[in-house]
Design a protein that fits this description.
Blueprint (H helix, E strand, L loop, with lengths): L1 H27 L1 E3 L1 H11 L1 H25 L12 H71 L5 H36 L7 E3 L13 H11 L1 H16 L6 H62 L5 H35 L5 H5 L2
Parallel strand pairs: 1-2
Helix pairs in contact: 2-4, 3-4, 4-5, 4-7, 4-9, 6-8, 7-8, 8-9
Length: 365
């Protein structure tokens, strides 16, 4: 009896020795939702930390120039003030503008981080799906090669036909290597955004769904972006400050030219923003139409897949036909997922450009 108990004890120990390491390995890959990834980036991203320091530096510089201005008089023109006073005031106006720009850029960078993380997160999910597709394609290519060789042995296939199938099999192997590398690269980009060093031991969760947003009209979103974006504000502010400072320039003509340049640059900034916003708005409309078409295609292939599976069960379809139909259906599903990803990215980017505060949403969670 004691020997039996002892044997059971050793068997239990062996089972635990096998189970526990695998359980721990599963725990190592911690789940990371999209919301968690965005919050992690907002807390740990290095670019955000650098910009935060830029704001601190700009504030210190502004404090120094403000101190110098408080010691002197306010100049009305270059002709009525000494050079030191003019220098102090031009420096102050420049530093005050740079501080405000740095502050606004930090906030803009934080909002843009939501878009960037979504893009990188979805890239990893897409790369994972493509790797799975490549693995399944390789299995299918192997099956096709086996059947081609059998057909050749019984005289139902030529050597040239088999060589063509062999080439397809080799290409499937290459595609698998490329898909593996693409996944590694996508994970590396996401890790950098999240401030993660070393290996990326996270398992992503695909909770994406198609959520259409009504942005009222193209003209509305363009007007909103032009009134909200830091690039536009900064360009207008620099044009305004340069125009004010031309009276204090040692060469008025040069100062006047510089003011004209800044004014033109402000106009360029508005044109570029207008083009970017219009392009996003139109792409959302296109993605919406494509989604409706894909949705119908997926339903059609789903039904086809169901029928072929039933036919396979009763011997009316081959394993190859079944696998081909399943792969076709999965590929269409992946197209639909990627469209949902792209819609969410474009939608979020447009929300950022039009001044929506997305960061506060994640700070509350």
């Amino acid at each position: 009896m004691s020997k039996r108990i002892l044997s059971m004890f050793f068997a239990l120990c062996f089972a635990l020795s096998v189970f526990i390491p695998s359980a721990l390995a599963a725990e190592d890959a911690k789940q990371l939702t999209l919301d968690d990834a965005i919050k992690m980036a907002l807390e740990r991203n290095r670019d955000l930390k650098i910009q935060d320091l830029e704001v601190e530096k700009a504030e210190e510089t502004l404090d120094d120039s403000r101190t110098n201005v408080s010691k002197g008089n306010t100049p009305t023109s270059n002709l009525l003030a000494d050079q030191e006073t003019v220098l102090n005031w031009t420096t102050y106006l420049s530093d005050e503008t740079q501080y405000r720009i740095a502050t606004k850029q930090l906030e803009a960078l934080r909002q843009q981080m939501v878009v960037d993380v979504k893009t990188a997160y979805y890239d990893v999910l897409t790369a994972e799906k493509k790797l799975t597709t490549a693995e399944e394609a390789l299995k299918l290519a192997k099956l096709q090669l086996q059947q081609a060789r059998i057909k050749q042995e019984v005289g139902m296939s030529t050597k040239v036909e088999v060589q063509g199938v062999e080439t397809s099999y080799q290409n499937a192997n290459k595609d698998l290597v490329a898909a593996t590398n693409a996944l590694d690269e996508a994970k590396s980009k996401l890790a950098t955004l999240l401030g993660v060093s070393g290996s990326f031991d996270y398992s992503l969760v695909d909770n994406s769904k198609y959520e259409q947003v009504d942005f009222t009209s193209k003209d509305y979103v363009v007007a909103k972006a032009l009134s909200q974006r830091v690039e536009i504000w900064a360009a207008d502010r620099l044009a305004e400050v340069t125009d004010r400072l031309k009276d204090f320039a040692s060469n008025y003509k040069v100062g006047d030219i510089e003011a004209s340049i800044k004014d033109l640059e402000a106009g360029n900034a508005k044109d570029k923003m207008k083009q970017q916003v219009e392009s996003l708005y139109l792409s959302l409309e296109t993605l919406d139409e494509n989604y409706k078409t894909l949705e119908q295609n997926v339903k059609t292939l789903e039904e086809k897949n169901r029928v072929v599976n039933l036919q396979y069960e009763v011997g009316m379809a081959t394993a190859l036909q079944k696998q081909q139909t399943e792969q076709e259906y999965k590929e269409k599903l992946q197209q639909m997922r990627e469209l949902v990803y792209n819609y969410d990215i474009a939608k979020t980017q447009l929300q950022v450009l039009t001044g929506d505060d997305l960061v506060s949403h994640y700070n509350k969670k």
